[in-house]
Amino acid sequence: MASLAAWLTFARWFGLNGPFAALVAILVCGAVMIMWSLLVDRVHRSPSTGIDWNGPAKPLQETIDISLTKLAGLWCTWGLIAIVYACGRWYWTGSYSFAMGVLASLTPGLIALSVPYVVWLDRRLIEPRDGAYAFGAILLGGATPDRAALAEHARQWAVKGFFIAFMLSIVPGNYAQVIDWDLATALGDPVSLTRWLIAVMFLVDVTLATVGYLLTLRPLDAHIRSANPYAAGWTAALICYPPFILMGQGGPLYYQTGTRDWSYWLADHPWLLALTGAILVTLTAVYAWATVAFGPRFSNLTHRGILTHGPYRWTRHPAYVSKNLFWWLSTLPFLVTTGLVDMVRNTAMLAVVSGVYYWRARMEERHLERDPVYCAYSQWIGRNGPLSRLSRGIGRWARGGSDAV
To answer: Distance (Å, rounded) from C-alpha 24 to C-alpha 21?
Structure first.
């Protein structure tokens, strides 16, 4: 956070508002997070990395065939992702075109760096044969397929391929908005100040989330343990993102027809306007905090370690709770300028959107419940979480103060 704030201050001072300056923000955050993870938290020593630091590394002759097989599987996986990018027309228009340019420029360097990285890591891994190895073994020798390893490999790289492109496409626009904002005007206008602070919170979220997708590395203990194996979980997640998004303008779950947001309806009530703005900024800050808490381990549809700190001390899904409260308060879908029909439709559609996020949360829980650590956390938060206690309190009140059903 401090490194990102320093870069944003520097960038605003010199007017560095372009997409490559946004990439520098990602690099700055990523570099600091790597150093903190290795030098302070010393995560590379964690047993969950699967790396054996005790004793000498395995002889190169013992692991080189595994490494070469794994590299074949890895490079072919990248090639298949490139084919998907080539076939998806949306990847070559709008903000996605910048992401494609970045990934194309990075590919030769990634291929070159993957060789020493894989060869070095395999000499230290307790079990170097993973999904990439299983895929490479089929490509090179027609080995009997390890279907479970192949499926897991495909899911993990589907997550990274889909979301890395998406994150790289949205960071530059959000970054430029923060850098270019007229702060002199914002400081004298609570609505403008609110919108700028919200933009800053979203920039924090997308920048650190992008770092998380990029740093799925075992030495950082940030590797993907597993990707969600349930089709319902993927469906619930993907309909929230382009090109599959259902909530965007023209989509079946669009909930803003004829709406005017909170600043319009509260314009004649300055204190209520300022209070609402403060609440919206707080909700966005909680949403960003939920991403920051992951450090370099953030990504959708994956298990990369269980979090119990930060806003996760309050609820299992602080990002979803704060995001949906933000939408209801900022949009006010039940207040429209186009009549009763749009009021009913907007309210119903936003309720459905909230239902989608509840479904998405349940599918994530179903995936994570395979880990006993998450089960213990889930049981604890169910007993001690503020939202859980509030829900029980409302239930007791509805039953007239009795705990009996």
So the answer is: 5
Task: Say how far residue 9 (Cα) sits from the centre of its chain.
Answer: 25
The tens digit of pLDDT for each residue in 372-401 reads 999 999 999 988 888 777 777 787 787 776
Cα 360 to Cα 319: distance, rounded to the nearest angstrom: 12
364 CB burial (10 A radius; 0-12, 13-18, 19+): buried
What is the pTM assigned to this prediction?
A: 0.94
What is d(CA 246, CA 230) in angstroms, rounded to the nearest whole number? 20
Instruction: Give the three-class secondary structure for 51.
Output: strand
Q: Which tokens go with 250?
A: 């023209």
Cα 23 to chain centroid, rounded: 17
d(CA 109, CA 78): 13
Pairing mode of beta strands 302-303, 226-227: antiparallel
Smallest Cα–Cα separation from 160: which of 222, 98, 93? Answer: 222
Q: Over the stretch 29-61, which tens digit does the pLDDT of each residue have?
A: 999 999 999 999 999 999 999 999 998 999 999
